[in-house]
Amino acid sequence: MNEIATDALVLGGGPGGYVAAIRCGQLGLKTVLVEGGRLGGTCLNVGCIPSKALIEAAHLAAVGGRGETPFGLTLSATLDFAKTQQWIAGIVHRLNQGVAGLLRKSKVQVLNGYGRIVDGKTVDVDTATGSVRVSARHLVLATGSKPVELANLPFDGRVISSNDAFALDTVPRSLVVVGAGYIGVELGTAFANLGSSVTLVEIAETILPSWDPKLTDPVRRRLEGLGVVLRLGTRLDGLTVDGAVVLDNEGRRETIPAEKILVAVGRTPNVDGYGLDQLAVRRNGRFVAVNERCETSMRGVWAVGDLTGEPMLAHRAMAQGRVVAEAIAGKKVAFDPAAIPAVCFSDPEIVSVGLSPEQAGVDQGKAVAASFPLLGNGRAMTLGAESGMVRIVADARDGVVLGVQATGPHVSELASAFALALEMGSTLDDVALTIHAHPTVGEAFGEAAFAALGHPLHASRAFST
Question: Rounded to two decimals, what is the model's pTM?
Answer without folding.
Answer: 0.94
